[in-house]
Write a sequence for this structure.
């Protein structure tokens, strides 16, 4: 009996106090056994995306005004030049070299244009300072065109900024919380141009996996074919071609909705990721270790250095000097290493339990994993970041 079926059975025994309740529990258990559900499965929409359905990046250059003296300094030439150009378009001519203001900042505005976005809908934007402004708190972004990679304007951004930090200080000290030179504007850009998508009009679609894997691609193919026979074919480890059935060509959105919500258990490469800077270890599910004996012992070296001063005695001869003599003491201690055996083909749980039983620290565990890998007993990729 599977663990989940055991849980259902125990719950039924605890709550089925009536004959009708017992009958319902038996029916529920029978349905689960006939139609098992893989609790480790992921939907196809989490494993891949429909080819052609993706966001597009937008970028633009703009000015933030209304800052309380925390804007760009006078030596930021492009800020004053941008201000002069903007005022000139409004009929006011000023000399950029003679302009000294601290309430404006030059920024780059970025956003993602979601697929199927329509003209008039709103998207969030991120505003980041590119000059020497100290804070964007209280600023307002002026109308900024956002362009795509093709140079066309797809959205226009404008509005007050929301900053998740602040900065304050004086001549002797400063205080800062979070990052005050980057901000967001929720629904800060209006879409002015749409991007057409033609994949719905085709007779087939392509599912591109976010992480290429032949086993995962084969499982996606088999899962789709179990519902729509002879419609799916895995071309390689990264793409799966799916033919739209004839009875679904009139309603491709329904077909894609069914496909992306199918559960598939993904496969992954056995990997251990180690971050030595923070002492973080992440061990994958499929990691296996051959039979190996491990001994871990610590060596501690302590060096203590004192200085002894020898002064001349009373009535010492003329010319006697004070002598300073160093006294160095060195002591080395080594813990007794305990040798323990890790049996072959152990699971990740057994490996963790074995290492915890020895009482090793995270740093020692990193050293142990590297040594096991060097011995050829670790059947996984060891990635150190």
């Amino acid at each position: 009996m599977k663990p989940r079926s055991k849980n259902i059975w125990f719950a039924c025994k605890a709550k089925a106090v009536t004959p009708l309740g017992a009958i319902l529990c038996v029916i529920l258990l029978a349905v689960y056994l006939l139609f098992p559900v893989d609790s480790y499965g992921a939907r196809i929409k989490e494993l891949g995306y429909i080819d052609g359905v993706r966001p597009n990046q937008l970028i633009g250059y703009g000015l933030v005004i209304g800052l309380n003296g925390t804007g760009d300094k006078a030596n930021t030439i492009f800020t004053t030049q941008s201000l002069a150009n903007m005022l000139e378009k409004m009929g006011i001519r000023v000399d950029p070299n003679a302009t000294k203001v601290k309430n404006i900042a030059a920024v780059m505005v970025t956003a993602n244009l979601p697929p199927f976005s329509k003209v008039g809908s709103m998207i969030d934007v991120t505003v980041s300072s590119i000059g020497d402004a100290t804070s964007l708190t209280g600023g307002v972004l002026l109308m900024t065109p956002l362009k795509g990679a093709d140079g066309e304007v797809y959205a226009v951004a404008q509005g007050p900024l929301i900053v998740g930090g602040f900065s304050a200080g004086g001549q002797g000290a400063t205080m800062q919380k979070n990052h005050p030179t980057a901000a967001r504007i929720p629904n800060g850009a209006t879409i002015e141009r749409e991007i057409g998508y033609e994949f719905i009009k085709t007779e087939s679609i392509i599912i591109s996996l976010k992480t290429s894997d032949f086993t995962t691609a084969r499982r996606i193919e088999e899962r789709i074919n179990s519902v729509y026979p002879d419609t799916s074919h895995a071309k390689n480890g990264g793409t799966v071609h799916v033919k739209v059935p004839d009875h679904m060509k009139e309603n491709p959105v329904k077909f894609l909705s069914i496909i992306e919500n199918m559960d598939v258990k993904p496969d992954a490469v056995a990997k251990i990721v180690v971050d030595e800077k923070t002492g973080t270890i992440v061990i994958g599910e499929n990691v296996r270790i051959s039979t190996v004996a491990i001994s871990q012992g610590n060596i501690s070296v302590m060096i203590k250095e004192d200085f002894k001063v020898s002064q001349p005695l009373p009535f010492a001869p003329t010319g006697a000097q004070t002598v300073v003599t160093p006294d160095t003491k060195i002591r080395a201690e080594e813990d007794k290493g305990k040798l323990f055996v890790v049996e072959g083909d152990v699971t990740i749980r057994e490996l963790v339990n074995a290492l915890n039983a020895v009482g090793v620290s995270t740093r020692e565990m990193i050293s142990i994993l590297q040594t096991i890998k060097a011995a050829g007993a670790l059947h996984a990729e060891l990635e150190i970041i």
